[in-house]
Structures are given as C-alpha cells and as structure tokens.
Recover the amino acids of this structure.
C-alpha cells in the first residue's frame, strides 16, 4: 500500500455564489445566473464542483510559489490538452493529464496517447445542510434609457469537501504500454534521466529526485492555507481557505474522514463519536498524528471539546490541535518522512 495525505475541509460561505451553472429561465427577468446545486429528495444543496475546486488549487499554486510552474494549454480543433510534461510542469505531475495524439510513421498510424491519473483527488464541496439559494434582483441603470434588469443566485452555507494526495505517485511515471499505465512515451525517458530520475527495474516506474517530489507535495498542501478563487467575488467576496480542517497520512487509499461532519437540525456538526471511532479503527493505518485546525470565530462551540480530545492520552494516535494554518504547516514539514527515495 502507498501512503496518502488525506484531509477533510470546511469552507464558510456566508453570502456566496462560488460556482455558477449558467443561465436559468425566470418569470421576473429574461434570465437568471443560477448557482450549482443538487437535489436529495426534496432538499436542495448548493455545491462547488471538484473541477472548480481543483482549478482554485492549481491557480493558487502558480500564483503563490515562484518555483511552481503550470503547463501551457494547447488546442487542436475541438481538443485541448496540456503539454503532458511532468518534469517541466508541476501541475502535470500532481493534477494529471491526458494527451490523445497519433502520428504517421511511414504507412502506419501510431497511437501516441499518454495518460496520468491525478495523484491529487478531491470531492465536490457540498453544503452540509440543505439551503434554497436566494434570488437577488439588480439593475444596470448607469446608461441612458430604461434600466436593464438582471438576477443572480447566492447562498449562505458551510461547504464540506475531502481530498487525498497519493504521496508515492507524485514524481513517479510508468511507461508500460497498458491502459492507465502509459504515463510517458519511451521517447520521454531521456528527459526524466536528465532531471535525475531513476528506475529500479523494467517493471518499476521512473522516479524523480526526492527533493523535487517533497517540494511538490509540501506546496500542494501549503496552498490550502492561502487558497483563493470562486465566482462573483466582486459582490460576494468569500474566503475559501479552510475554517475547519482534519489531516493525516494514511497507509492506503480509502478516506475514513468522509463521514465526520453530520447535519443535526439544519446545522453541520463534528461528530466526536465518529472521529473517535475512526482514530481507533484505523490506528494501525495512520502513519502520523491526526491534525485538526479550526479558525477562531467559526464553530467556536467545538473549541473546548477539541482541546479535550487532543489531550486525551488514551487515544491510540496523537492528536494535534491548533489553527488551520499552523497544522497545515506542521504536517507539510513532516511529509519528507513519508516520501521514500523511490516507490
């Protein structure tokens, strides 16, 4: 099994429209900009797509870290793809890619498609409690003549999401000609070798130097504390950094933090029974402490219980409790211990 950095995060969205679904018909106006939302029975839950969250993440990494480089986007007719160059571009490594191409070699058409499953996986950010978005009516009235009406939706909720980063997969690339395993073409191997990459044997992946892999993992985690993005920020400015975050490193790819936040009477709450059960059930799988960060002013009713939980010496795992930024930095500094010289 490989080690995974796993996390659960809550984002406070008190007056937000972070991800829109486009135009929607309205009786009051010719159109309305609707937010993304899903239905569970009769209840409505606003959400931010996983693609949007990953885009905030990718953009923040490029803007905040001088040595992080995002791949340029190329287009051919209706197809768009990145450079599929994980040595030169950090996001091609961490966020994955697919480049479907072919070329004629003599009279034979050769498939040159390469794919890379993203080591960073995440869920959508979904409202914990049901929430019917508010329709906000506005007009454009600065011009001469009649004002132009328009409408858009926004909501007030707490969004929950989970993510996982496969630490062994970052900086490791296979050139096995098998569906899902052909990350790089054979012609790309010399570039990996020039970057200091090595391969243990023919069946093993090519692995970049540990220093590079550690940097990419640390920056991916550290970006959460300075994350920015979202739609309608000019009129609904929302801080999308985590207000509550739970982190650890787990041996394996499952995600036991998924069901720690529950809805009770229309309010999201942290279930300490579920958290205690996860810590006990997966004690032999956790490779580090459980890191819990909470922003003061958000769910302050949890502070005393979280302090007590972190000081509980009977738990089979250590628990570190502090602000979101501090626990993110603490775990990021320890990631080097969880990333081997080669998978």
């Amino acid at each position: 099994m490989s080690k995974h950095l796993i996390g659960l995060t809550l984002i406070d969205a008190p007056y937000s429209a972070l991800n829109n679904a486009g135009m929607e018909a309205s009786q009051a106006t010719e159109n309305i900009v609707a937010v993304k939302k899903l239905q569970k029975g009769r209840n409505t839950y606003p959400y931010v797509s996983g693609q949007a969250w990953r885009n905030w993440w990718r953009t923040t990494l490029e803007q905040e870290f001088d040595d992080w480089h995002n791949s340029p986007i190329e287009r051919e007719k209706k197809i768009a793809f990145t450079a599929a160059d994980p040595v030169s571009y950090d996001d091609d490594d961490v966020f994955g890619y697919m480049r479907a191409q072919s070329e004629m070699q003599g009279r034979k058409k050769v498939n040159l498609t390469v794919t890379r499953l993203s080591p960073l996986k995440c869920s959508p950010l979904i409202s914990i409690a049901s929430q019917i978005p508010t329709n906000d009516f506005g007009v454009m009235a600065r011009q001469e003549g009649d004002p132009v009406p328009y409408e858009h939706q926004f909501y007030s909720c707490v969004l929950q999401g989970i993510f996982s980063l496969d630490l062994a997969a970052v900086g490791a690339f296979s050139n096995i000609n098998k569906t899902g395993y052909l990350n790089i073409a054979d012609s790309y191997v010399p570039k990996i070798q020039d970057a200091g990459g090595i391969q243990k044997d023919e069946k093993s992946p090519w692995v970049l130097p540990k220093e590079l892999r550690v940097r990419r993992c640390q920056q991916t985690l550290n970006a959460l504390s300075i994350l920015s993005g979202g739609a309608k920020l000019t009129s609904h400015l929302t801080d999308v950094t985590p207000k509550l975050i739970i982190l650890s490193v787990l041996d394996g790819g499952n995600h036991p933090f998924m069901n720690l936040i529950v809805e009770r009477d229309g309010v999201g709450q942290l279930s300490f029974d579920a958290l205690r059960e996860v810590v006990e059930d997966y004690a032999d799988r956790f490779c580090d402490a459980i890191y819990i960060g909470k922003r003061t002013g958000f769910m302050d009713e949890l502070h005393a219980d979280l302090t007590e939980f972190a000081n509980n010496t009977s738990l089979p795992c250590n628990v570190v409790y502090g602000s979101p930024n501090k626990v993110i930095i603490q775990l990021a500094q320890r990631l080097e211990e969880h990333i081997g010289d080669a998978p």
Q: What stands out?
A: Residues 3-239+327-338 form one domain. The CA atoms of residues 228 and 239 lie 7 Å apart. The first helix runs from residue 50 to 64.
